[in-house]
Amino acid sequence: MIRSGYVHSFETFGSVDGPGIRFVVFLSGCAMRCQYCHNPDTWNMQTGKKFTPKEILESALKYRPYWGKDGGITVSGGEPLLQIDFVTELFRLAKEKGVHTTLDTAGGPYSENPLFQNRFQELMKYTDMVLIDIKELNSERHKELTGIDNAQILAMARHLSDLNKPMWIRHVLVPERTDFDEDLSALQAFINSLHCVEKVEVLPYHTLGVFKWEDMGMEYPLVGIEPPTKTRVENAKKILGCIK
Amino acid sequence: MLNFKQWNGFRGRIWKEKVDVREFIQKNYVPYDGDESFLKGPTDATNQLWKTLQTLQKEERKKGGVLDMETEQVSDLDVYGPGYIDEVNKELEKIVGLQTDKPLKRAFMPYGGIKVAESACHSYGYVPSEKLMEIFTKYHKTHNDGVFDIYTSEMKKARSNKIITGLPDAYGRGRIVGDYRRVALYGIDALIEAKTRDFHETEHHGMRSGDFRLREEVAEQIKALKGMKKMAQVYGFDISQPAKDAREAVQWVYFGYLAAIKTQNGAAMSVGRIGAFLDIYIQRDLEQGNITEVEAQELIDHMIMKFRMVKYARISAYNELFSGDPVWATLVVGGLGQDGRSLVSKTDFRILHTLNNMGPSPEPNMTVLYSSRLSQAFKKFSAHLSIETSSIQYENDDVMRPIWGDDYSICCCVSATQTGKEIQFFGARANMAKCLLYAITGGVDDKTREQVGPAYRPIDGDILEYDDFMGKFDQMMEWLAGLYVGTLNMIHYMHDKYYYEAAEMALINTDVRRTFATGMAGFSHVVDSISAMKYAKVRIIRDETGFPVDYETEGDYPRYGNDDDRADDIAVWLLHAFMEKLRKCHTYRDSEATTSILTITSNVVYGKATGATPDGRKDGEALAPGANPSYKAEKNGLLASLNSLTKLPYEEALDGISNTQTINPGALGHTKEERMQTLINVLDGYFDQGAHHLNVNVFGVEKLIDAMEHPEKEEYANFTIRVSGYAVKFIDLTREQQMDVIARTVHANM
To answer: pLDDT for A113-156, tens place per residue?
Structure first.
């Protein structure tokens, strides 16, 4: 059952989306509506171009000479879990070739529903690492920021922890939205409760994607919010214990 | 067999029987696979000299680019007394010797062309003496006059319409690297003896003009060797014997190079490959306790400081072509030997370390001969310096070694040449984008509307049909190749006659191999234009007279730089097709034709002279530099772009395939360690797939814009960037070129 997936774009030289140099597949389609999203052009799945897992793997393998010991494929988005079976097939083929696989997800579609769970288990068989965005630990603030609450996302993190899946946790630091000491401390406590978190990263909010909102004729929700100061970034890193 | 007491402790026999520096290196060098922790910082003397030199460089900038100029005498080996960076503190200089009597003062060098020498003076408010002008206009002919005496009218037209461009017909051709190490290893007297033997061996019955020429050349070489001794004597050194220690070895090598730059003003005056060689002397002195590491580093620092000072009097048009006053004092480090041992010595580290001790600098043109098999420590050190200084270029030792052996130098920006055994006839570029337009217009120039090429039938329809075009393009390339090589043949004949490189050739085997280096400009635009014709629909837009002035493309087409075979195959075809046509031509002195895809900063000037092309490039817009994909063509990130380049076979472009990439530091990773490892992985992957060259710049576009707006800021005084085949201080580029650099893709992650 080789199904096509909807792909927004490829980046042959991803060096921050998982270990080493990565071939990054940005899938299209996301149900979250994060106010700071820098890729709103990936929200609509139908705008993507269709590719089969095999086609993508073939493209990716052309860059294997650059991967060294650590690199591989990262599937990002959009939200890759919206096309979970497609990602599973891609990763299954990748593992056949011994390629390191990383899933970059915000966890929105995660659910306890047994049907989803079966598919998720299957995906995890072929996934070496998961990058999780945790946007806010305060559920209300999370909902305001993204349109959904964070219960499923935290559940996914716990589940991955139970599976002993290596994880990187990433937190986008947005002034007035995700930069509250008490929430950061709570996030740190949550992370501490997980196994296998190999890295915690603070990604300072930037405005490089704003033009895309304008191109798409949408109003940018964070007008007037500037990137965080260096001090706040350092503060967040300290609270989250990024610096090992 | 020769034997000198200066050779005590050196192993090997063959290099004592005949001049063979490579053999000496192989028998005596010690590969170093450790890290950089042994390196030492600058001495007080180094700091003080470098500070003085920087002050002079600032004054030079303030004065419009030239500090001082000679107007009374013609540069030669023995016309000047000694010159120092700082006359008062001359004892600080461990390595001595200047081109003239004062630092940064430009010599008067008329043999390439008196007109250019004169207007170079005028450009900066100087006037050459009447006596000199009289001699070189009335009594002594120059290279430039010789060439223009014999150029055909077609050649002159092709030249002034810039389809053949950047020709070395008014100054030194350069690109000849003397084996300067010979001066240190053998001393001048032994070299004179060897050349004298060669001279006598040319004698035979029935000698003809070719023999006469050779005898005259060798006689000139012997004179030059004697001149070198005098030149060194001025500084109190007797170089008739071999160097006895590290300091002398460095000094002797530098004297060899100094002889070259005092007598020739070639576009490229490379230093060559001296790391492992000098290391043998330094190692011997260290082991015997004669010097310390601090002193060893000081010798290297002071030598490199001299390479940073090489200057020529150039005209303003030259600066537009090759911005930032480059001399391509190219110096290579790294590489592997044919026996599989690394050729990286401690002195290769010391040479790179000058970028730490004295900060970034465009000269010497620092080149790492790369292989994924080099030690991780050396790769890391190079990557670290690339990230910090953007002053290093990388060339693939694994593709060059099989062709040039393991003792080659880079003789220009990126071109390899066997040290001491080979020279190159440098040949500028054919503008392939213009050739493509001539195929459409039937040889009528896109800018001047002059009939320059043969009046073949033009394309008269409104659509550029692929098959129709390809037939015409093939014919036009055939014409261009023939004319181009014919022009270069004349240039090199006259250069040999009026501006022979006696000093450099004296340090090269008499039985020399010659390559004939042509070049292609506008490569990516031709590839993308052909792809547009093949995979989309290209409509010709004509002016009221019916002449094609622009092109409109309907539909998508693959572009070079995206790892898409459909476009990349066209690139491979283009290179192969042009090279085949070049191979068919007779080349001067039975040299071997090669070609390159590199353009230096001249891509801006070439573009200005080139009309709109079918790939969407507008009239007068800069061409993409070297073998780089066109602006905004790269859609799939850095590695896709690199992969396209890896498909171009080096065997078809032995003169080099240059690629310049700028990477945002953030795109290499978050931490210093990550960034180094990412860069190493990029280099490994790129070169393991057979690519030839990569310039690596690491900075964001914000920094470029700020430097352009605020060149006065202290932090930008030495801000160096790599452009096609060399490095340049960013603030020395023209505004146009700065904009061009900024417009190119900076690979960043969001």
So the answer is: 999 999 999 999 999 999 999 999 999 999 998 888 899 999 99
Interface probe, candidates B387, B565, B634, B749, chain A, greatest A C-beta count within 10 A: B749
Q: Are the C-beta atoms of A104 and A170 separated by less than 8 Å?
A: no
**B561-591 per-position pLDDT tens digit:** 999 999 999 999 999 999 999 999 999 999 9
Pairing of strands B408-410, B416-418: antiparallel
> Any long-range contacts for A206-210 (C-beta under 8 Å, 24+ apart)?
A206/A38, A206/B750, A208/A38, A208/B750, A209/A37, A209/A38, A209/A39, A209/A40, A209/B750, A210/A38
| Contact assignment for B677 to A65 by CB distance below 8 Å | no
Query: DSSP string of B160-217?
Result: HTTSEES-SSSS--------THHHHHHHHHHHHHHHHHHHHHT--TT--HHHHHHHHH
Contact call for B750 and A20, based on CB within 8 A: no
Residues 208-237 of A with CB under 8 A from B: 208-209
CB contact under 8 A, A68 and B677: yes
Measured in angstroms, the CA of B664 and the nearest CA of chain A are apart by 11
Could you confirm whether B413 is annotated as catalytic? yes
Contacts of A38 in chain B (CB under 8 A): 750
Distances (CA, A) of A63 to A15, A86, B89, B688: 13, 21, 55, 12
How large is the ipTM?
A: 0.90
DSSP string, B218-237: HHHHHHHHHHHHHHHHHTT-
How far is residue B290's CA from residue B725's CA, in Å, rounded to a whole number?
A: 39
Contact between A12 and B747 using a beta-carbon 8 Å cutoff: no
A13 interfaces chain B, CB cutoff of 8 Å: yes
A242 alpha carbon, distance to own chain's centre: 18
Contacts of A172 in chain B (CB under 8 A): none
- Nearest one of A234, A228, A37 to A133, comparing CA atoms: A37
DSSP string computed for chain A: ----EEEEEEEEEESSSSSSSEEEEEE-------TT-S-GGGS-GGGSEEE-HHHHHHHHHTTGGGTTTT-EEEEESS-GGGGHHHHHHHHHHHHHTT-EEEEEE--TT----HHHHHHHHHHHHT-SEEEEE---SSHHHHHHHHSS-SHHHHHHHHHHHHTT--EEEEEEE-TTTT--HHHHHHHHHHHHTSS-EEEEEEEE---TTHHHHHHTT---TTTTPPPPPHHHHHHHHHHHT---
The model carries a pTM of: 0.94
pLDDT of residue B318: 81
Nearest CB to A15 within list B643, B678, B688: B678
Strand partners, B410: B416
Q: Do B685 and A63 touch (CB under 8 A)?
A: yes
Cβ–Cβ contact B398 with A under 8 A: no
Torsion A97-A98-A102-A107 (CA) sign: positive
Q: Give the closest of B639, B669, B684 to A63, CB-based.
A: B639
Residue B34 contacts residue B377 (beta carbons within 8 Å):
yes
Residue A132 near residue A106 (C-beta atoms within 8 A): yes
The beta-carbon neighbor of B749 closest among A10, A15, A62 is A15
Catalytic residue (choose from B121, B413, B435, B585): B413
Could you read off the pLDDT of B227-241 as tens digits, one per residue? 999 999 999 999 999
Q: Please, which residues 538-577 of chain B have a Cβ atom closer than 8 Å to chain A?
A: 563
Does B690 touch chain A if contact means CB atoms closer than 8 Å?
Answer: no
What is the nearest CA distance from B630 to chain A, expressed in angstroms? 18
